[in-house]
Amino acid sequence: MVVHRDFRRQGVGSALLDDCCTLGARWEQPKIYLHVDVANVEAQKFYKKQGYETVRLDPFWFGFTRRYVLRKI
Ligand SMILES: CC(C)(COP(=O)(O)OP(=O)(O)OC[C@H]1O[C@@H](n2cnc3c(N)ncnc32)[C@H](O)[C@@H]1OP(=O)(O)O)[C@@H](O)C(=O)NCCC(=O)NCCS
């Protein structure tokens, strides 16, 4: 997920994430998981603010940077 630099910190990312939860519930998939790069500390703060917690370090990585798996609490 990426919000244009000029529109960050205005609630756009939160609104998009909320809509993902709404769609998940509609599709009877209430558990929401996502990945975030270990080095992306700012995005981790964003996801924590939205109620996500770190589950584990993703064991699968093929040339990507290491990522955490997060889930909605
Ligand atoms: C992460 C990202 C999607 C957040 O989108 P956004 O529209 O700026 O987020 P919001 O305005 O809804 O932020 C809600 C809250 O999250 C937290 N937050 C958001 N960005 C933050 C940052 N850079 N540092 C610390 N906290 C942050 C704040 O608590 C914020 O509330 P506040 O502005 O009232 O303090 C956006 O910064 C982005 O596109 N980043 C680059 C791409 C990226 O890293 N994506 C994630 C890939 S997994």
Automatic annotation (TrEMBL):
Gene3D superfamilies: 3.40.630.30
Protein name: N-acetyltransferase domain-containing protein
Residue ranges of domain N-acetyltransferase in the record: 1-73
Statement: the UniProt record of this protein carries the keyword Lipid biosynthesis: no
Organism of origin: Cymbomonas tetramitiformis
Keywords: Acyltransferase, Transferase
UniProt GO MF annotations: acyltransferase activity, transferring groups other than amino-acyl groups
Record-annotated membrane-spanning stretches: none
